[in-house]
Amino acid sequence: MAERRTKIIVTYGPAVEAESQLRRVIDAGANAFRLNFSHGTHNEYAQAIARIRAVAAESGVPLALIADLQGPKIRVGDMPAEGVELRKGKTVTLTSRRIKGDGETVPVSFPDLGGVLRQGKKVLLDDGRITLKVLEVQGGDANCRVMMGGLLESRRGVNFPGIDIKAPPISGKDRQDLDFALQAGVDYVALSFISSADDIGMLRSLVESRTERRVRIIAKIENQEAIRNITSIIATADAVMIARGDLGVEIPPERVPYWQKEIIRQCISSARPVITATQMLESMIEDPVPTRAEASDVANAIYDGSDAIMLSGETAIGRYPVRAVNTMHRIARTTEAALSRERTRPGASRASVSDAISHAACEIAESLGAQAILTPTSSGSTALQVSRQRASVPQVALSPEKDVVNQLAIAWGVMPFMINPARDTDDMFEKAIAVTRDNGIAQSGDEIVITAGVPVNVAGTTNLIKVHRLD
């Protein structure tokens, strides 16, 4: 069985909004869709979610939906549709006023420019592609000189490097978007510019007060504060996204590769799915093939151990969204073929019985040459514990919870399936074995390894390993 282990997340946008395009993107290998609530309307996303769910159901593919909340992200306001060219040496005024921008004045979504900017400070626009230097601050406006120019369009990001911005982690807009996303049935909620575990706790309280569903939280790592608090953030979040665009603006870009590897290492150790994102195949927004450096970047993220790799503008607004997914799929398959010969398993943790059982199940499966590792799970915990071992044997997760099946779509190496609730242990084994037969995963004479929890249908009780030879 030659399934791709690293998962692919695509960002939804105009380039894939047609049902035919969604079908092609899913067929090409998409495992999840990110809905970027910095753009678009609730009505547009309601239609998008309905189309994505319908196409996924037709394809029989478990698919995760991720609602990406804007958080305290500062953005450029309305600019002319064609954008404005900011030329090096030119002066431009940043303002908090809600006006239409032009070549002289640029509105930004931050109310206290005068309170945080000072003469000599840098302002970075559009992920650092444009650099301004503050000349003077007058009231709520900042007059700046363009140090590095470029085309500036509406809604592009704004960063104030080295300045601690005190802003609520969840805005009024985020709360409205969260209400909509939960009602629409998303599987994950991602929060931008998290700075501490407390931010995650606040979001989790909001989620739990609005739904009884097990909606998971993704912490986006994008600033220096998150780096300082990374261990507690990983412990508190359900998954982590390394958002390298803003992170590479907020910290020196030469430090991003180190932190990418370190965050991935900690996430694997903690059994938290980790997503590497931003600018992975960015040239494919306009070009049909990636640069060699981009191909190497994708491969390196896989070598590092990413559960999932994400496409942003490539699929949202790019000219070649399906080709971009196909390209990422091919790079992943080729890289994983080399990794299967090189990867070493993390040591068995002594933190819990579940850790030890999951580690042992993978060792047994590989020693026996088993056809698959089966992980019946009610919460997803067993599947994630086994996934973190990065076993060479295919992993099949089985759950009676639709939310869990969808959420496991972004976990490394996991093939999730929906099953009916098991009455007891024997019934659980029968259902798991039936899935392997019905889906061609194993056949008569093959050995499979099953790891699960007893009693059944109780979260967090992984305590059993069974080796079974199919009749």
Describe the structure.
The structure is a single chain. The protein has 471 residues and is an alpha/beta fold. It has three domains: 235 residues, Phosphoenolpyruvate-binding domains (TIM Barrel); 86 residues, PK beta-barrel domain-like (M1 Pyruvate Kinase, Domain 3), CATH 2.40.33; 117 residues, 3-Layer(aba) Sandwich (Pyruvate Kinase, Chain: A, domain 1), CATH 3.40.1380. The strands form four sheets. The chain has an eight-stranded parallel beta barrel, surrounded by eight helices. The chain has a seven-stranded mixed sheet with strand order 4-12-8-9-10-6-7, covered by helices on one side. Strand 1, helix 1 and strand 2 form a beta-alpha-beta unit. Helix 10 packs across helix 12. The longest helix is centred in the last third of the chain and has 22 residues. It starts with 6 loop residues before the first strand and ends with a strand. The model has no long low-confidence stretch (mean pLDDT 92).
CATH level-3 fold name of the largest domain: TIM Barrel
Give the termini separation: 20 Å
Kindly report the name of the CATH homologous superfamily of the largest domain: Phosphoenolpyruvate-binding domains
Level-2 CATH architecture of the largest domain: Alpha-Beta Barrel
What is the arithmetic mean of pLDDT? 92
Low-confidence stretches: none
| Largest beta-sheet details | 8 strands, parallel, barrel
Query: Going across the major beta sheet, what is the strand order?
Result: 1-2-3-13-14-15-16-17
